[in-house]
Here is the input.
Amino acid sequence: MSSLNYDDVAGDYHRRYAQSPMPGVARALNEAAAAVGAGRVLEVGCGTGRWLEALQASERWLAGLDPSRGMLLQARPRLPRVPLIQAVGEALPLAPASFDFIYLVHVLHHLTDPRRFFLAARRALAPGGAIAVVGANPVAAGSAWYIYDYFPAVREMDEARYPAWEQVRAWMTEAGFGQISSRVVHVVDVTFVGEEVFGDAFLAKNATSQLAMLSDEAYEAGMGRMRAAVAAAPLTLFHTHLEMVMMVGTGAVL
Ligand SMILES: C[S@@+](CC[C@H](N)C(=O)[O-])C[C@H]1O[C@@H](n2cnc3c(N)ncnc32)[C@H](O)[C@@H]1O
Here is the structure.
């Protein structure tokens, strides 16, 4: 297993949204930004720009930040007028109180120092501003992801990376966020039957950090197990059930 450089997966990453655009996430982010009347909006870990694109509105000034130059280069044509900054979330290069709404989607498990990130985000938010953390925890009770059945190393890796939502709430509280609430904003619930699964965009080697972090040999071994399962039982079911949660907090207490 290797660590992931998003530059290596940038060219393939956005394909996931053709299969699953996750409209509930876009709706929820727009609602959360509108709830605080956000004029200045920052996405941390903006990747290829899927959510910034969905948040564009005449009354908002948007910016994106990501450490991967490759991901930012993919975002650029989608967001020709949006400033895109190459940086990590733990060291936000921002003036105090410079944004009204800061959000991140599927990024928290990549942060090496989430406490530092939440403190930095708290400082960068203007009074009355809000933060939103969106993500799915694939190892939480109630989640299902067939990938774990065929690539056992991936589950082990995710158990080490994904914080429980209660932990996220504790970090936010510690950083001074208040009025913390959470809700499910989108559910991915899909079952592929037999051969169909090989068309799943999330099964490609570079579609998710999970599979991208496997060695080529480990990836091929898992694919071999899936092919053997389908050969033995052509109606094998491959099920995914993932709840996307949005946790919101305001910067109003301190
Ligand atoms: C799963 S992708 C999500 C991209 C985008 N938010 C989306 O939902 O499509 C994770 C992103 O987090 C970025 N990332 C990794 N480490 C980070 C860090 N320390 N701070 C901010 N972003 C980071 C990666 O470069 C990558 O673009």
Notes: Residues 6, 44-47, 50, 66-68, 71, 88-90, 105-107, 110-111, 209 surround S-adenosylmethionine (CB under 6 Å). The longest helix spans residues 216-232. Residues 100 and 129 are 4 Å apart (CA to CA).
